[in-house]
From TrEMBL:
Domain of life: Bacteria
A Pfam family that the UniProt record links to this protein: TctC
Organism: Pigmentiphaga daeguensis
Family stated for the protein in its record: Belongs to the UPF0065 (bug) family.
Identification of the protein by name: Tripartite tricarboxylate transporter substrate binding protein
UniProt signal peptide: none
SUPFAM superfamilies (alphabetical): Periplasmic binding protein-like II (SSF53850)
Length: 282
């Protein structure tokens, strides 16, 4: 998804920036590798980081020796898109809504289980945020991958999961899987009939994955503004929309300041969740 989005953005930016853009995927360590690589580049606007704001915030609390400060070492350029997660439950659990699920969890404390792709993952923390805001006691079951987790949910061995791939998984197994809500603050354009967690009865809940463009700190403000302006023009164009409509993401153009505010809000938000976990925080 991110690679397709990045390549579509790069191809559409050329008329505005008048130079080719090379995509260099550097996965690993919840994007620490990519951030370190971007920070080794000169602060001249020629190297940008496309990555998850959510991971930037989570890493502050989960990485013991984080080799950078996301506030001091990165210059916000602009938001790109949000990717909602979906709350998927096994149909045999016999709950039709989030309110039903909360009521069941309160009636059976510690019995309802939720899967994730590992401790500290966005899916794990989405479940912990749900647990905290809904005032319920649900049990975490970590997996090595989403496919295995979904298989066990469909088989009735685990009760639920927050996942960005919820739509595709449920489409493939409607008899055994059900989506109750999306984690974004507004309904997803890809699934407008699915309520948000807030609409479904959990006030204040939001656990989307936010993606943005960043530059090394020290990049001149004029360069940042030029790139931001070009990116926002592309994000609003019909040709770009046609290239990215099938990705199931919500495009979210912003100013550099709005992105900075988002980062500053995400860090304490996830810190409050992580520090409540056993051994939480670095």
């Amino acid at each position: 998804m991110t690679d397709i989005f990045a390549r579509a953005l790069a191809s559409e930016l050329y008329p505005y920036l008048k130079q080719p853009i090379v995509i260099d995927n550097q996965p690993g360590a919840t994007q620490v590798i990519g951030v370190k690589s971007a920070l080794r580049a000169p602060d001249d606007g020629q190297t940008l980081l496309m990555g998850s704001v959510t991971n930037l915030a989570i890493n502050v609390w989960t990485q013991k020796h984080l080799p950078y400060d996301p506030i001091k070492d990165l210059a916000p350029v602009g938001m790109l898109f949000t990717s909602p997660q979906f709350l998927v439950v096994r149909s045999s659990l016999r709950v039709e809504s989030v309110r039903d699920l909360v009521a069941l969890a309160k009636a059976r404390p510690g019995e309802i289980t939720y899967a994730s792709i590992g401790v500290g993952s966005s899916a794990h923390l989405a479940g912990e945020l749900f647990k905290s805001l809904a005032g319920i006691d649900i049990r975490h079951i970590p997996y090595k991958g989403t496919s295995q987790a979904i298989t066990d949910i469909a088989a009735g061995r685990v009760d639920m999961l927050f996942t960005g791939g919820g739509l595709s998984y449920v489409e493939g197994d409607r008899d055994r899987l059900r989506i109750l809500a999306t984690t974004s603050t507004t309904r997803s354009a890809a699934a407008p009939g699915i309520p948000t967690m807030q609409e479904a009865g959990v006030p204040g809940y939001e656990a989307s994955l936010w993606f943005s463009l960043m530059a090394p700190a020290g990049t001149p403000a004029a360069i940042v503004e030029k790139i931001n302006h070009a990116v926002n023009l592309v994000l609003g164009s019909q040709s770009f929309k046609q290239k990215t409509d099938t990705l199931g993401v919500d495009v979210t153009p912003s100013t550099p300041n709005q992105l900075a505010e988002r980062i500053q809000a995400e860090i304490p938000k996830w810190g409050a969740v992580i520090t409540r976990l056993p051994g939480g925080g670095n």
